[in-house]
Structure formats: structure tokens, C-alpha cells
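Purpose: get a first structural picture of the assembly so the mutagenesis plan has something to point at.
Setup: four entries, given in the order below. No constraints added.
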Amino acid sequence: MALTEDDIQPQMTRRRPGQSAITTPRNEKDRVEIQSGTEFGITLGTPIGIRVLNENQRKQDYGNQTMDLYPRPSHADWTYLEKYGVKASSGGGRSSARETIGRVAAGAIAEKYLREAFGVEIVAFTASIGNEFLFPPTPTHPTSATNPEFLKLIETIDRTTVDSFLPVRAPNAEVSERMEKLVQEYKAREDSIGGTVTCVIRNCPSGLGEPCFDKLEAKLAHAMLSIPATKGFELGSGFGGCQVPGSVHNDPFIKAPAVPAGQTHATVPRPRLTTKTNNSGGIQGGISNGAPIYFTVAFKPPATIGQAQKTATYDEEEGVLEAKGRHDPCVVPRAVPIVESMAALVIMDAVLAQKARESARSLLPPLKGVVPVGQGRPQQ
Amino acid sequence: MALTEDDIQPQMTRRRPGQSAITTPRNEKDRVEIQSGTEFGITLGTPIGIRVLNENQRKQDYGNQTMDLYPRPSHADWTYLEKYGVKASSGGGRSSARETIGRVAAGAIAEKYLREAFGVEIVAFTASIGNEFLFPPTPTHPTSATNPEFLKLIETIDRTTVDSFLPVRAPNAEVSERMEKLVQEYKAREDSIGGTVTCVIRNCPSGLGEPCFDKLEAKLAHAMLSIPATKGFELGSGFGGCQVPGSVHNDPFIKAPAVPAGQTHATVPRPRLTTKTNNSGGIQGGISNGAPIYFTVAFKPPATIGQAQKTATYDEEEGVLEAKGRHDPCVVPRAVPIVESMAALVIMDAVLAQKARESARSLLPPLKGVVPVGQGRPQQ
Amino acid sequence: MALTEDDIQPQMTRRRPGQSAITTPRNEKDRVEIQSGTEFGITLGTPIGIRVLNENQRKQDYGNQTMDLYPRPSHADWTYLEKYGVKASSGGGRSSARETIGRVAAGAIAEKYLREAFGVEIVAFTASIGNEFLFPPTPTHPTSATNPEFLKLIETIDRTTVDSFLPVRAPNAEVSERMEKLVQEYKAREDSIGGTVTCVIRNCPSGLGEPCFDKLEAKLAHAMLSIPATKGFELGSGFGGCQVPGSVHNDPFIKAPAVPAGQTHATVPRPRLTTKTNNSGGIQGGISNGAPIYFTVAFKPPATIGQAQKTATYDEEEGVLEAKGRHDPCVVPRAVPIVESMAALVIMDAVLAQKARESARSLLPPLKGVVPVGQGRPQQ
Amino acid sequence: MALTEDDIQPQMTRRRPGQSAITTPRNEKDRVEIQSGTEFGITLGTPIGIRVLNENQRKQDYGNQTMDLYPRPSHADWTYLEKYGVKASSGGGRSSARETIGRVAAGAIAEKYLREAFGVEIVAFTASIGNEFLFPPTPTHPTSATNPEFLKLIETIDRTTVDSFLPVRAPNAEVSERMEKLVQEYKAREDSIGGTVTCVIRNCPSGLGEPCFDKLEAKLAHAMLSIPATKGFELGSGFGGCQVPGSVHNDPFIKAPAVPAGQTHATVPRPRLTTKTNNSGGIQGGISNGAPIYFTVAFKPPATIGQAQKTATYDEEEGVLEAKGRHDPCVVPRAVPIVESMAALVIMDAVLAQKARESARSLLPPLKGVVPVGQGRPQQ
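Result (C-alpha cells, whole complex):
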């Protein structure tokens, strides 16, 4: 595959802190350098090594005397000590969200492949901050999945639109403004607030995911809950969908519309059936059905706040901790490219597994009395 | 480890259909037989083979002519065909929830170990059915995590109590009654409804889970989303926690209370610090902190309903499908032991990984200037 | 894939004891029953469960009082106890070579696929018993790899021919006779003897195996050394090849001959180059080059012998052990189908991995300035 | 664990080319720099990143016009192209033996742990070059395993002694001299020659390795055959052991001698029984028995030779290739630390797996009627 730094940099830049007043003021440049695995701009098949230098670490922010005494509440300091028996002096060390740089770099590569091979489009956006929602739950729509406006949004939203709503990345002018104001309020109080990110994967091939333990949603949930500060994951209709009757929740099948001839990936076979609604979120029985896959990820309010906190020292003494480090009042907008990247990695893995199966199968003689495989709807 | 069928059967029986009028009337006996891996009631260290015969399968329920023509909406029929290129005739084949028998059997073994070794207690219960909640979200408590009554419940609830609220398994007489009524209504309409299961893991050792991709909540989310019909997972404060300010959400540390001397596992070291609140749900930075781990899993309304559904055949023809098989209007009460079992399996894996690390470390000479490891609070 | 018991039984039968006077007299029937994973003779994509009942176990042979006292020399009794802390009463339990039944059943399935998809042929035979060799090392040919007669044999040998030399399965009448006599001598003395099995994999696709830790030969070695009673593995020229100068050992490239049009798998692309000699054994840099892959596996003399042995009890007392169980004086002939099966499993895994890669790559737009991939030599 | 560059550098230096006239003249410095995973000389539990700069790569040696035309015989050029569809210009790219630097660095860390925790000693040495052997096979001793002199050597040999026989690293003055002369002859002819490395692991805990597919010897074979240029692996009596009768080959058990009180690791429990002979090579039934583990690895003559070679171009044209790069006439002496490193990595993995098991088991209440575990022979 053709691959240069230019394929990776854009998502790195979207993840970068310092993009606006409401995110962390660290102004890291996060320039990507490919160290190995490509030659003349083409991947060699061997591991791709990437280096991103940390140009702006201020060690003194962390590692001050107070922070040596106190495990920060709801941070990883204490559990790392419980696990490893040692503590790193530099700002929580491995549990720093700076770790997500590697995820975003890898995700950008996976995403390029998926886009070139299938026209896959992965777009995430801020769905809520605090109690401000793009689609607040209502008695009629306890889940946005049943809301036609929401479905229209996930079918059309792109990254340019999302980024036009910086700094919050919620694609709705009015809600976006309210969210920004909310974050400013929390910032002013040296407090923090959480929120949710919704992500859609369009043009995903059908047949991805394994039927039992490695259902596609299970792998997505695993990937999303591995992002720092996440607290929840829901696919399709999600938690709100538990309140919808089966007769409404079930997605009836309909004949899939023909892919317009002019479309870039018109030659990639698509399933002959699709669903009229999409409460399933594009996955049924653990396996993608070709419809847009969408899910929402919950991010807690950042643990590092400027306010003084009553807590205990490593030595069990009560006391007051005041954190002086730079910190985000809300991580949600910056989490958008991280969620996209993890989604790309999960889909890439599932594509490789399924392609192995399909490709191996295609070499066998045809079976009698069996529905032919991969015989998608012909294009117009 | 001592192990006989008697250690496994109780959870199998709790999972069994036919426990009440509101669950599926199939009256499977689900008797466990250990085939290998033990001798004289003791595990040999080698794989444990278990057989549970299916005594009451009525093939004709499935595989009827109608069902051969239609992929059932929101079921796995269509995606299995897309993935494998063949379809099994017998009731959705591998995607049948009967598959969860194996999970429950394995989970019962893991659970016995965890109980004997650490006094781990894993208890799940129905937290909501449709729009009936044990702890409905309120402006003050958008998440039940901040509600002291909820925290008290998860610290004390046991399986006997949960089962005293059969058929719904929601440990509150009034709510339970409303839930049962709600399910009956859906049953009467040949419709179905979803709900949520909350699960708590008490006395879990600290230090479990990996810091990056295999955070403990990521593994739990993976396991839970691999259960058929699940749509979401949230840890601790979860989605509601996104609406709580960091200053409230952070869990301050306090000196851990001494374990009463009489308690069975008083010799197992516990962390010296614990948290005053538990919005983290017992996991911080991906690693258990020793506090109760709790999480909630969303289950959709079952896809198989008696009502006629307008949908399409495998051959893209519009038509109406009427399912005649036995089916649950609500899977939530039966999901309780399945959630517990998957939780036990995840914790068991994490225990083995952490024990390898701790045990290997314990063989090294002591390091200078490093906090001694595993030096929990001494017992009274 | 079409699959019935008939595809699996033949190799099971070849593995079965009791095929001749020189192998173990246990007359197990080893009938294969497929329990799951197929329907109407076609695989469903889901796990294939197979059952082979043990019809002729005589527990009393093992488990006698003497054997309860002594760990059998060079058997697994002692190390299992050291590992697991318990001992199984029934004949060494899991370390019994009866365990290889599962390997042979699984291998037969893999082999069927490889044969149908690529025309892969896997044939093993006895290469030596004691000091009787099919191709004894000589100063000119310290390795049989440089011997044109040997190369001719591995290019043509088939299972029918190998089995026509039962009971020893060494495809040379004279050597075979000497080997049989040798085994009879050891049997008469209640002693045992080892030997080697050579296996060839023909028509293996090129490109299989990973460049670093999972080289194809590394996976083959892993698989072969996991067979009970094995002591060594060598690929191609092997140990003898260490004595050959590089100028002789290097395999020069030549244009590959065209595949005859009539040949079944003439449509499967083959590499454009092949090697003139094949000291590499079909693998270079860890990756298959399309030439026959061949390797040799060493089997030790069986540990269970009728002769009395001076040894120690579990309680460290000196004493004399006399084993009364049924036992082979030489396992080499029966190991032939086991070696073939493990080879099939390794190649199948490598095919799936490489097909994932090739198939994924084939969906990308063509790269400029890069040699097109998979553009094998056209057929005549 | 305490860890600095000084723990890693010695093995890196032993692996380095340019140690004598008979190895490659590239004079790389191979200085190790730890980039992450330690702080103040102590490991943090997180991944350890190490950098070794390549100070002396001469790209022009490779990548010349001739080498662009020809795949080098018995090198990875052709198979990499078959696998990946692209070729790297720089000297075979990933298949360069320079890749083994990472193995040696990682191995040094594993080895430090094993030495500190158990007193494990891993020592490899050159056992043969061409037809010069430390212990040539004889009719009495077709395997050196039955030769008491060999057993004495593996029980006592250390690295200082091995390195005192540089450049060949065969611990016998007379044989060493003959080997050195032999290599010089091959060098003079611009040819190359192979050989074998024997490695011993002393004080390895018992109980390591899995009973079925991941037998300890299978993992060792996998690891060794993943080293570039290897052709074979044999454990204990190995290929020669196939010629020894079972009555001689079996290793009788004896009471283990007490560990002298003064010995460093006298507190680590050792098995109560050991074997009188050691044809098993320290592993029985796939599991270590506590006796010295020893094995031999075959290395082929290096493929890159100065002599002109008749071969074919990538375009199937016949021609003559003359390699101009720097190259070793024999890789065996330099392979010594690589073999040691891979051995350390395999043992480390097996230790962690077994410690997980033992540690988990130790938390259970004692079982009735079961031999207590890990109750080694008490020290004097």
C-alpha cells in the first residue's frame, strides 16, 4: 500500500491538544516520522515503526512534592502501584492519555486501507457534553436510533462538517454553542465534565465479526473501553433500546438499493438485502450486515481538576491535594479521532479474518445445493 | 481443586428456561456431566470436558417452510449466510442462546475458584425492564453510582435475595411486581421487551487488568457484549456519570477499614487505601482497586416475536413472517447467571495473569528505595 | 466444504494400533463420529466436534499397585506430578499417545482442504529405525538432501506405496525387511528402539510463513516436537547440511517448468522461478518457495518396556519396576499419519494467514513501480 | 527488577560482528539505550523500549545493480517477493541477521530475571563446524547424550570458558584449533560452512511446559528454528538417540542430592527425585524435570558467498551472480549468544505460565488425599 507521513498526520493533528481554548493548552506538534516498514512510499509488509517526539513535556508539572505524596483520586496512580509495586515519577507514566498517539497513528493506516479497498468512511462526533445532548432521549425516542433525523445524520456526516463545529465537534450549531458554554463554566470553576462520542462506520463489508466470543460489537466494546477515561459503550439502539418493544426494535429486511454506477467502489459486492430501520447498529448476531455500524462511547469527567480535593496520602494520612498540571476540563472533543482510530483497527482485524475465510473458500470446487457466496447485488 | 457436578449445576439450573411463566416454556433439564479433567472429584490440571444433553429440542418449531424462506429480522440468519455462505436448518444454529450453557458451566468453575481463594462474590440482578428501573435516573442522580442506596445494595445483595424475586430477579418488591406485569403485557401482545442487568464483583483482588489495551473494563465489556442480545455495557457511573462534575465524580481515597478477624479470607491481603465513593466502579486506569466492581449490561427486546412482521425473503421478495417457535418475551431474568459467569471468567483470567507477575516478582531480591509490594493492611 | 466421516476415517485407521505384529496389540476401532459443525455433509463454518469412543481400554493394565508406587522412567508421570501436584490413575492420563487421535482427525480435515484447493500432497514415511536408514549418511552425502535418489523419492512417493511397505512404512523392500527384523529383535528382548520419519509436502503455495518469529519451519518444528516421543526436527538438508559448503548448499534459481495443462490444479498460479536443487527444503527466509517442503522428525525408543528397570519410587526408595501394559517396541510406523496431520494443520494455518494478506492486498489500486503480485507463470 | 544497560550490553557485545578474523568485518558498536520502561534503574512493569543504532551500514554493498537483478540463492529475496509482492532495496531488509539484535537484548533481560530468581545458568557453545565435532558420533555413542564426558561438560561449562575459545567458541583446545583452520579454508575459497550450537539450561525449575501442543521442547524448537539460517533442532539424545535401545535410553529415577547449604538459591525448592542419566535432556512429557535441559541447533552454511553463482534473474534469465557484500564464512560462533537469548525467552514465558498456576493453586484450601505440591527436598 502506498503510505507516507501525510496519510497519518491529519488524524494526529486532530488529536493534538491545544486546538482551542477549551482543550489542554499543551502545544505539542506531534509530527509523525515513519522509521521502518516502508520504502519509496510503499509498505514492505513488515512492521511499520513510527516515532512522534514529545516536544513539550514539562516534567516539573507533575512529580512535584505534593503529587509524590498523594495518589490522585480516580487516576491510575494507586492501582498502578498496587499492580506493579513501583510508581513512575512522570505524571502517571503509562496511564497518560498521551499513549493514544500510537492508537491514532495506527488507526490512520488501517483507515487508509479500508477507504481504498471498500470506501469505508469512519466519522465520530460529540453526541453529548454533560447534560447537553445532540439528541436528548424522549419518551417517543428513548434511543436516538429510532429517530429518523439521527439516522439521516449518521448516513451523511463527514469529518469536515464535524470539524467545522470546533471546539466541541458536535454537528449542530445551537447545541454546539451550549456545549462550549458548559465546558467554559466547568473550566472557570477548575472542575471538569464528561460526555459521549458517537461514531459511524459506513460501507463496512458484511460478514465481519465472529459468532460467539469475538462478536464484532464485543471487539468494538473492548477497543473503546481500552481508551483512557471511558465508562461505557452502546451499539445501535443501546441502553435506550431496552425500552423499545421488539415489534418496533426489529429491523425488517428490504431489497438493497443498487449502488450508483458512478460511485468509487461500485465494484465491491454489497449484500442483496438491507434493513429498513437500523436499531441493530449494523451488526446482527455479532456479524456486520453491511448497514452503517454506529455506537456511542461514554467519557467521564477528567480526573485531574484544579480544585482542592480532600483525600489520603500513600501513607493513609488524610490531606488535601491540589493539582497544578495542565489539564482538559473535557476530553470529549479530542477523543473523536481516537474513537475513529480504534474503530478502524477493529474493522481492519475483522476484514483480515473474514478475507482469509472467503479467500480460502473461493478456491474450493462449488458445492451442490448451497447458496453461492459473495454474490452480491449486481451494480446498475 | 475439588470439583464435581454439584459445583456447576446450581448456575445451570438458574439459567434454565422454564423457571416461570414469563420465560420460555422449554423445560430443559440441563444436567451437567463432567467427562474429563477430574478424577475422584479433583481437577487434574488438564482440560475439563463437560456434556449437557439437549433433552427437549423440537426441531419442527424451527426449520418450518416459512422460516426457510425468510431471514428473521434482527436475528443472525442473514449475517450468518453473508459470513459463511451456508445456512443451518436448526433454529439459527450456532447463534441460539442455548450456546450460553457452556459459558455458565465454565463460569461456575471459575467462580468456585475465586470464592475459595479470595472470597470473591459475584451477584447480578435485573436493574430495569423496559422503562421500569430499580433506580430511575434523576437530575440529582443521573447515575445510580452517586446514590447511597444503590451503593448499599451492591455491597450487600446476594443470590438468594435475587432469586427470592423470581421471576424478574429485581431485588425490590414493588419494582419487581411492576416489571412482572410489564413483561406479561408484552407477552400477551406477542411482543417483547428489553432491560438491563447490573452485576457486582466483591472482594476482587486489586491489581487486576492491564494498563493499555486489556484494561479490566475492556475485557469485561468484551465478555458482556459477546453474550447474545446485548447492546451496551457501562462501568461504575457509566453513561449517567458523564453528567456529573469531576469534583463530584472523583473518588477520594481513605484508609481502608480493617477486615474483621473472623472473616473467612482475613488472611488475603487487601489494599491499605480504598475510596470513599465508588464512581469508578472498582477499576481505575484499567486496573482493579479492590473496591466492588460493578457494571450494567443492556439486553435488547428478543428478536423472535409472535406478531406477524413485514419483511423480505432471502430472494428479496416482500412478505410477512410469522414465527411459531417458543420464545421469551424478555431475556433479562435468565441473563443474570450468564452475566455472572462471564464476569467470573474475565476475573479468573486476570487473576492468573497478575498472579504470574506477582509470583515471579516475589522471587527477586528486594529493591532499594521501592515501596514493598503486596504489603496490604494487616488484619486486626 | 463437503465433509463427512469418510474424509477423516482413513487417516484414523492408518494411525490405529494393531495393524501388524510389530505395533501395539490394542485393537481399537477408532470410529469417527462428527457431532457438530456440518449439516447435510457440508461444513457450516462453526467448530466441528468429533467423537471417537475408546472401545478397548483396559484400565487394569495401568493403575496396578507397582505403577502407583513408581514414576515410569522417561515417561511423563513424574513431571506431571511436579507440574500439577496430582496424578491421574489411568495410564499416564493426558500424556498417553492416544491423545494424537484428535490431531489426526483435525489434520485429515485440513488436508482435504489443501488437496482440493491447491492439490497439496502430504506424504510421510519411515526414514530410519535404529541404525537402519533408507539413505544412510555418507562422506559424499552427509545429508540425503544432496542425493538425487532421495530428491526423486520425495517428488514421487505416495501413501499407497508407503503402506505397501507395512508394517514399517519404509518405501524400500530391502531396507524395510531389515527394519522389520530389527524391531522384532527388540520386541523379543522386551526392549524398544527409535527411528525417524521423513515427510514431504508437495504443491504447497509459495509465500507461506512469517519472516521473523513464526517462520514456517519454526511452526513445523513446534508442531512436530509437540508429538509425544519426538526428540528432533530437521528441515531440508538439516543436520547433515551443516557439513556441506555453501557453494554446494545454495539452491540456484531456474525458470519454473510449466504445469502440464491436464493437471487438476493447473489454474492455481505457481511461482515463475524454482530452485535447481532443494537443500532449503522448500523454505527460504522462513517462507515457502513453492518447491517440495520436506523435513525429518526423530522419535525416541518408547519409554514403556517389558524389561525390569532399577529406579526409584515416588517416595525416593530404590526399587525395580516391571511394566505389564501393552506397548509398542517402536512407534515410528504409526507416527507416519500423525506427522502428516500436524504438517497439514501448520500449512492450513499459514494458508489462512497468507490468504488474508493476499486477498486484502488485491482490493487496493495497483501501485506504480512495483512488481505485480501473484502473477505466476501462465499454464501451457 | 533492577535493570540498566549494563545488564544487556555484554550479550550484545558477544553477538557483535567483528570479534575476530573469522567473522564478518562489520564493526558495529551495538550500544544499547533503554528508552522506556525503567526509571532510576528499576523496571516499571510497562514495556521496555530499547534502541541500538546501526552505526556502520554501507548501503552500497547491497542494492547494487547486480543484486537488483538476481534473487540471491538460498536467501530470502525471492520468497519475500512471493509473499509481500514488493522487495526492499537494502540488503534483504527484514531477513538480515541484524534482526537478532532485538532477540539478544530481550533475552538478556529474561536471563537476568531467571538468574536472580532461580540461579538459572544458560550456556551455549559451538558443538561442530563442518565435519569437526566436539563429540563425534561413534557406534558406542551415536548420541553424545550417553557419553559421560559430554554430560560432565554440560554440567560445568560457563561463558567465560566458552569465550576463552574465541573465535570458534568450542570448549576444547584441539578441536577448536581444527575448527578455526577449517573456517579459514572456507574463507580463503570465498565459500562458507555450517555447524551446530549446543545449549544447556541449568537450575531450570521443574514443571515448565504444557502437556500437549506447547510442550517445552516444542517451544524451544519453535524459538530456535526462528533464528535465521537454522536447519534443525534436537533435544537431549536427539537424532542419535533413535539408535539407542529403550533399556539404555530410559533415565532411571534416583533420590535428588541435597543442595549444598551455601549455594545462592538453596531456598528455591528442587524436585525430590532426579534422573541418573539424562537422555531426556531435562524434559519429559513436554515438562521440565529439573535436570539440565540441553539441545543442539543446526546452522546452515551462510547463503551469501563471494564465489560466482550460476542462477536466474527475477525475470527468469540465466546468469551469474557475484555478491560483493561483507559476509561471514560461518555464523556458528556468533550464533552462541542468540541461541542463549532465545532459550531465556522461552523459559521466561514458561515460568510465568507455571507461576500463575502454582500461585493460584497455593491460595486454595488443602485437598485430602493429594500429594502436597511444591514440597521439594528440604535443604541440608
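Chain D touches chain C through 117 residues (CB under 8 Å).
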